[in-house]
Predict the 3D structure of the following.
Amino acid sequence: MNYSEAKEKLERYGQTHLLKFYDELNEAEKAELLAQIESTDFSMLKLCESKENMAKRGKITPLAAMTLGEIEENKEYFYNTGASAIKAGKVGAVLLAGGMGTRLGSHEPKGMYNIGETKDVFIFERIIKNLMDIVDIAGSWIHLFVMTSEKNHKATTEFFEEKDYFGYNKNYITFFKQEMAPAADYNGKIYMESKSRMSTSPNGNGGWFISMYKSGVLDIVKREGIEWLNVFAVDNVLQRIADPVFVGAVISKGCAVGSKVVKKASPDEKVGVMCLEDGKPSIVEYYELTDELMNSKDENGEPSYNYGVILNYLFRVEDLEKIMKQYMPLHIVKKKIPYIDSEGQLVNPEEPNGYKFETLVLDMIHLMDSCLPFEVIREKEFAPIKNKTGVDSVETARELLRKNGVTL
Ligand code: UTP
């Protein structure tokens, strides 16, 4: 794309300010900026104008979860079913580690965060350790696919190499990059992060499967005969990955996807809850739950919308392939976006100053025909690290890890 084509494209979207420093750039920088303009989809900026109209929901009805009692009764059967699928190499794992972790405020990838107190305990290390528990039982390696982004790929891969993959077999760890989306101010004008680059951020965790496909990593999945992918977040340090009982339950029920859920701590807890939306599995965010839904009860007198998701899903690959090119809603999220000011000086804002555009893995659930919400014990499986202190923080996660016998 040459300068005039770029200018013409930017005019269509009201973004010509991106060329403000063009004349000051050297040839390589000019080429870099023009290439970025060419490859960027600007259509999402329209969403900034009509944010209020976005969250149109279908009819929400309850979706019963498989509860702890039911799981306990069938545990042996589920375990055997899951373990034999794992042994046969039919289960892979996908670590979503492309996020920026802005709330935690570390400049390194979140997985490199050291939560140890008397020794080093890195988040990535905890994840590998948890996966190793299953590898040891199954007696076969589970292929781990790690999603990074352009912003943290190098740091992440170098860290794994430096730590010798925490003892995991590196032939069974594959990294792939997710895509980026532009980041804009509240008026929909894209920020610049340098004179030759517009600000971009990872495009959300909903693009993981299409990114596996585009990066060629899906070929490995097919070649190895992996039929199920357990996708999970980097920040839950109590995460159970490729849990045979969970895998077995989802297979036994013949569902396209399973979702680990925890019983809500209170009706107004800020978690997304499993439901049916227009008869298809879905997740309704806490702020979308009306009082009527929040207080409705099932036939046992329990809240009808009582199970929150913890970002641990088991998807059937065959079904993922069917939906991968379908439209996913874009979410606009307020975040802190570093940018250069009109003088070209870099500014690192203390508070959110604009929008990022993301698709979310939870929206993939609604594209599936069936979903099994599978209850797990919160204190044993859910210790998310989002912030440094307070709710869902390094402090609360340490407390839970100690309770589960982990030395920090
Ligand atoms: P979060 O929603 O906590 O986002 O991600 P984040 O970017 O890591 O953190 P904040 O909001 O800036 O503080 C949940 C999971 O999804 C992954 C994260 O790495 C985490 O495992 N994720 C998020 C991606 O892989 N890509 C993204 O674009 C966003």
